[in-house]
Design a protein that fits this description.
Blueprint (H helix, E strand, L loop, with lengths): L1 H42 L15 E3 L55 H6 L2 H23 L26 E9 L2 E2 L3 E7 L3 E10 L3 E12 L2 E11 L5 E6 L4 E4 L5 E3 L5 E2 L2 H12 L8 E8 L4 E16 L2 E10 L9 E7 L5 E8 L5 E11 L20 H13 L55
Parallel strand pairs: 1-12, 11-12
Antiparallel strand pairs: 2-3, 2-4, 2-17, 4-5, 5-6, 6-7, 7-8, 8-9, 9-10, 12-13, 13-14, 14-15, 15-16, 16-17
């Protein structure tokens, strides 16, 4: 009987320990679920896209040429300092024939001091020479002033003017990191690589997906008269082969590797992701134009087709990110036809140089794919206009700057020149005079701080030599 009692006690103890084990498992599962809920609540910052109130269209913008400004003219080279006048050797006289007499004029003394009033009175040609020199200086000044509005190198060349068109400014290069969400669930971070030197660009959007691989979209090309001009668009989804879209500028054709069909290449055509940067460049060039209700049309080529996308401005909104709230301008693609449920929303932030702070694509079946700015791997500066990256939009120097450059060039010391107004004209020497008619005149120049004086008149009875 004692044996049966012991068996019953052991059975009761086993049942109690088994119950406590289940209680412990239940408590552990509850705690784990609570921790998972807290983590999800802390990290789940995705904002569901609500039906936006589309403002009434107030303006429709078509594809236009962008404003292209000539690069700044090369500044005028500073005037070289005049070299000290070298003493010229006395003119060599040709050997004279025998038994020939020559009349020689003694060399004139170099003036070392300003002429005295009596000397000026005795030399009536001096005032005329001074007036002539002043007139020549004023004419030279007028010539420089007239050349100031020019391009700084050629006096009479007209200043380069900007061509008429929409304002366009490429965003600064940047490497941005984004949190990625699929239907509100956070996935591994993605990146947007954007690089431009003002004449070429490259954009790579990369989103890693678990069990599938990395989705990437690559667009690279150049910048032409209509803005970004893609040369090739590459779309790769996980381990599937890449689909290419080629923009053949010579043949004016868009060809695909996914389909044998081809399309005509219109001016300003974009791919799915270069369109975002084209829009950012237009908004960056003239933000005040894109007010609520302003719609711009883009011709966008996908990996097998192309169509016009109407992008309308919704307005300025606040986007919540891990780094705080960011003010951005909301743009949305309008339905392209009846029953079009695909939607694309883009938020461009001035603090990021008008690069996207948020992108959301809503599929026809309701699936949402979102990129939300997480930080910058290389911070783009909103005020960085990238001189090399934006050579097409570099402003030309103003007329005031050109006039200042010309004035500085005018104030630079000029090479001394002999006065020409009062210099007597040398007659042609007679055949008996053996002095060469082409002998240079003596290099006599007044000091820089003195008024040019006319040389004294030679005696009337002495023959003049050049």
């Amino acid at each position: 009987m004692s044996t049966s009692t012991a068996d019953r006690n052991a059975s009761t103890t086993a049942r109690r320990s088994h119950a406590w084990r289940w209680v412990a498992v239940f408590a552990l599962v509850t705690v784990l679920h609570w921790l998972a809920a807290q983590w999800f609540e802390r990290h789940h910052t995705a904002q569901r896209v609500t039906p936006a109130h589309v403002p009434v269209q107030v303006r429709l913008l078509k594809t236009e040429r962008i404003e292209q400004q000539a690069g700044p003219a090369a500044p005028a080279a500073p005037a070289a300092k005049p070299a000290a006048p070298a003493r010229r050797a006395p003119p060599r006289r040709a050997p004279s024939p025998p038994h020939t007499l020559q009349a020689l004029t003694p060399p004139e003394a170099h003036p070392k001091s300003p002429a005295e009033p009596a000397q000026a009175a005795s030399n009536p040609a001096a005032p005329d020479a001074a007036a002539s020199a002043a007139s020549a200086a004023s004419n030279a000044s007028g010539t420089v002033q007239a050349a100031a509005p020019g391009n700084g190198s050629t006096p009479n060349a007209p200043a380069a003017q900007a061509s008429h068109g929409v304002k366009f400014q490429v965003p600064p290069s940047g490497e941005l990191e984004y949190d990625t969400f699929f239907n509100g669930a956070r996935n591994a971070p993605g990146t947007i690589h954007w690089k431009s030197d003002g004449q070429h660009y490259e954009m790579v959007v990369s989103i890693p997906l678990p069990f599938v691989g990395t989705f990437s979209w690559t667009s690279h090309g150049h910048i032409d008269a209509f803005g970004l001009a893609p040369d090739q668009y590459i779309e790769k989804r996980g381990r599937r082969p890449a689909d290419l879209t080629v923009f053949n500028r010579k043949e004016k054709q868009i060809v695909f590797t996914r389909t044998p069909n081809s399309l005509a290449l219109p001016d300003g055509a974009q791919d799915r992701f270069s369109m975002v940067m084209q829009l950012a460049s237009l908004v960056r060039g003239d933000p005040d134009t894109y007010k609520p209700g302003v719609t711009r049309e883009f011709y966008v080529a996908d990996n097998d087709s192309g169509e016009i996308w109407p992008i309308t401005t919704i307005g300025d909104e606040t986007v919540s990110t891990d780094h705080g709230y960011v003010t951005a301008r909301h743009f949305m693609r309008l339905p392209r036809h009846d029953g079009d449920k695909r939607r694309i929303d883009v938020w461009l932030a001035p603090a990021l140089g008008w690069l996207p702070v948020r992108l959301v694509q809503t599929e026809p079946n309701g699936t949402e794919v979102e990129l939300l700015w997480h930080g910058a791997l290389s911070v783009p500066k909103a005020s960085d206009d990238s001189n090399a990256a934006n050579a097409a939009s570099a402003p030309a120097p103003s007329q005031a700057q050109q006039a200042q450059q010309a004035q500085q060039a005018q104030q630079a010391p000029q090479a001394p020149q002999a006065p020409t107004a009062a210099t007597p004209t040398a007659p042609t020497p007679a055949s008996g005079d053996a002095t060469s008619a082409t002998s240079p005149a003596p290099d006599i120049a007044p000091p820089a701080d003195q008024t040019p004086q006319a040389p004294p008149q030679p005696a009337a009875d002495a023959p003049m030599h050049p």
